[in-house]
């Protein structure tokens, strides 16, 4: 009988285990500038968004700011349309469409939103550009940071922070300009007449931009953005991601340009680390897909430039799918993609139908609380109401007011009113009904209708209660 050997597991005594620091200090990332197709593509997507963001609040429409979210007046103006609190469901629908739209894009092309259009990415790129202008190339920046404080260093750092702060202030003022008229804001702010809230919010958004794009950068994507965390559940084997072709690249190793990699038993990766140096999140894509990757494709541009110099085919790092990398057949339409696309289609259709069938008038009827009812001459019972009528259209309108639901009901007070665009009229009225119409009931339903004059039947209704004396004793 052979002697069974018991495996021995060596355990390091606790005294010899090094201290583990659960909070790791951030290693500063010095990104290298890179040129290439995807960097140009990022410019083409980033610039229109910047122009839209900074330009939109300066547009005018019909004598007012075209896009103005007027919170004190509870009105959102977007070109010809004014949205009221009653339109809140439309905003909820819009957010749902945006969320499902993002899911759909993510299933197809991964985190393409993060890499090309996310404000954090676009603003960080501008701040990185300012850094390069003021402090120089990657190597110059590393040298500057490691060197002593000199006049040159103080000047370059001041220039960088001045540029960052200027752009952050420009961003903050523009953001607040969506909520308060921007033409007045840019005059009032330097004169100190903008008001406490405008000053506070401008300062808040300026500092938020300065800190997020200047200091936090990739940490926002890695630790603060929830999208980075749950994106993986939307990925499948057909999702387009930035990938390193391990089969082609390994084993990696440096070599002379004219050397034959096959003779050296090497793959196409020359281990130059350029793909790591250009990465804004500081990861090595050769280690596989990582949640830090924002799919900006800068490593593709870097690697393609290396492949060109080595006379190797481009695409060692490329946009591809897991199936394509493994040589498996691809299919474009998958159940998940079909589901998300259908959700976007249905939600968009419903949103548009609600938007275009929106009624630009609203009425609320509020019963006078202090008085139940009053019996008046002629066998009539009277209740008092305040009607709140909103003109949600873009021009002054005349409205007819009527009451129904109880036979013989008559309004005592104006039955035709004119309201300016965007105004709310609080109209006190009395409603009188013959006592016999109540048929001994102590209350009955009444319906107030407001109809826009000459507008093809645009109307809104509000229900209320009419109180009476009840059965005769
Ligand atoms: S790995 Fe490549 S695509 Fe991903 S974040 Fe870094 S540079 Fe961008
Ligand atoms: S840039 Fe290309 S060649 Fe250079 S290390 Fe990265 S993958 Fe390898």
Summarize the structure.
With 473 residues, the chain is an alpha+beta fold. It contains 15 helices and 16 strands.
Characterization of the model:
It is a single chain. The protein has 473 residues and is α+β, with helices and mostly antiparallel strands. Among the domains are: 236-325, no CATH class; 361-467, Immunoglobulins (Immunoglobulin-like, Sandwich). It has helices spanning 37-55, 88-109, 112-116, 119-135, 138-146, 151-176, 182-191, 196-216, 218-224, 226-230, 246-249, 274-277, 298-310, 322-325, 335-356; strands spanning 60-61, 64-65, 67-70, 75-78, 81-83, 241-244, 317-320, 361-367, 374-376, 380-391, 397-404, 410-412, 416-419, 424-434, 443-452, 459-467. The strands form 5 sheets. Strands 8, 9, 10, 12 and 14 form a 5-stranded antiparallel β-sheet that branches. β4 and β5 (81-83) form a beta hairpin. The longest helix is centred in the middle third of the chain and has 26 residues, at 151-176. Bound molecules: iron/sulfur cluster (SF4) (2 copies). Residues 242, 278-281, 283, 285, 293-299 line the site of one iron/sulfur cluster (SF4).
């Amino acid at each position: 009988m052979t002697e069974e050997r018991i495996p021995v597991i060596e355990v390091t005594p606790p005294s010899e285990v090094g201290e583990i620091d659960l909070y790791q200090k951030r290693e500063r990332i010095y990104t290298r500038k890179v040129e290439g197709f995807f960097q140009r593509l990022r410019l083409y997507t980033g610039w229109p968004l910047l122009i839209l963001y900074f330009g939109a609040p300066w547009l005018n429409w019909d004598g007012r700011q075209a896009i103005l979210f007027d919170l004190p007046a509870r009105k959102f103006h977007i070109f010809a349309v004014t949205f009221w609190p009653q339109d809140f469901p439309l905003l909820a629908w819009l957010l749902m469409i945006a969320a499902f739209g993002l899911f759909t894009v993510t299933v197809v092309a991964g985190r393409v939103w993060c890499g090309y259009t996310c404000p954090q990415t676009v603003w960080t790129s501008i701040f990185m550009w300012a850094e390069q202008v003021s402090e120089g190339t990657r190597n110059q920046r590393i040298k500057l940071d490691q060197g002593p404080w000199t006049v040159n260093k103080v000047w370059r750092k001041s220039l960088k922070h001045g540029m960052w702060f200027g752009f952050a202030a420009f961003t903050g003022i523009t953001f607040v300009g969506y909520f308060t008229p921007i033409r007045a804001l840019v005059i009032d702010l330097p004169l100190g007449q903008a008001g406490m809230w405008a000053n506070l919010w401008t300062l808040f958004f300026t500092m938020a931009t300065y800190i997020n794009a200047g200091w936090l950068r990739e940490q926002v994507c890695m630790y603060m953005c929830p999208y980075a965390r749950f994106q993986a559940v939307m990925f499948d084997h057909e999702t387009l991601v930035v990938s390193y072709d391990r089969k082609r690249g390994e084993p990696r190793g440096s070599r002379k340009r004219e050397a034959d990699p096959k003779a050296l038993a090497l793959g196409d990766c020359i281990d130059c680390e350029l793909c790591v140096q250009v990465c804004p999140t500081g990861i090595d894509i050769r280690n596989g897909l990582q949640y830090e990757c924002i799919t900006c494709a800068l490593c593709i541009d870097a690697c393609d430039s290396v492949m060109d110099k080595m006379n190797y085919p481009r695409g060692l790092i490329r946009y591809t799918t897991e199936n394509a990398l493994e040589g498996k057949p691809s299919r474009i339409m998958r159940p998940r993609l079909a589901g998300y696309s259908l959700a976007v289609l249905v939600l968009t259709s419903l949103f548009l139908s609600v938007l275009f069938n929106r009624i630009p008038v609203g009425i609320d009827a509020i019963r006078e609380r202090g008085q139940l009812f009053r019996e008046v001459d002629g066998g009539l019972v009277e209740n008092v109401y305040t009607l709140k009528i909103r003109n949600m259209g873009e021009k002054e309108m005349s409205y007819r007011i009527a009451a129904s639901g109880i036979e013989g009901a008559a309004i005592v007070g104006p039955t035709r009113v004119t309201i300016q665009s965007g105004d709310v009229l609080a109209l006190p009225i009395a409603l009188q009904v013959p006592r016999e119409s109540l048929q001994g009931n102590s209350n009955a339903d009444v319906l107030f209708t407001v109809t826009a004059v000459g507008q093809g039947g645009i109307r809104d209704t509000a229900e209320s209660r009419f109180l009476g004396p009840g059965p005769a004793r």
